[in-house]
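INFO worker-7 received task bundle
INFO bundle size: 2
INFO processing item 0
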Amino acid sequence: MKYFKDEKNLLNMARLSTCIWAPISAIIASYNYKTSGYLLVVAFDIMLAGSVVPLFACFYWKKCAPYAAFMSMFSGSLCRVILEGDCMLIAR
């Protein structure tokens, strides 16, 4: 966690993660080109489910801790992934 305390290191970590995830997502999109629109909607749903509660909490709850916000984002995203998996299983 020492890398996230300095803003320059935080910027470098964000750039590094972009360089890692952009090719991975391009490969997934190129192999699943028929479902890329659906995958985009699912990705948006996962990010929305993970970020709505922490966003409102940071504005309305002044004692919100960063760890609590992270766990809220993680659990919201995980819940959406689980529900998406259940929907895919039911559709088959």
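INFO item 0 finished
INFO processing item 1
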Amino acid sequence: MAIVTVSPKFQVVIPRKIWLEYFAAGPRASQFAAVIEDVVQLLVPTIVLLEVTRRVMQLRDEDAALQIAAMLRQGQIVPLDSGLALSAAHLGVTHKLPLVDSIDYATARQFNATVWMMDADFSGLPGVQYIAKRP
């Protein structure tokens, strides 16, 4: 099992949906800009790195995807090890969360960080900064 040491300065997990909204300059992008651009505080689960890079590669091209991957890698990359996987399984079942979202949430919980979410499933959960999809 890999051991990840995270400095106290890392305190935010941003899920793939918010990253994609930001990179696409969507209507809510400016709402997330300050937290995303403060890369020293970002925890980036490997599943987020995979999903965001893959989606950008599908929509644009490999060069754009690699540029975005480089930005994501400015944060602290958190690998999915067995402990985090088990925590994500537990949280996913307990709170009825989709697989990837449960990994994001477990990552935030493991490092006592805040996870930003636009999904109503997260409204009211501890450690979540919930932003409704539609204002």
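INFO item 1 finished
INFO post-check item 1: The two ends are 42 Å apart (CA to CA).
INFO post-check item 1: The chain has one domain: 14-130.
INFO worker-7 idle
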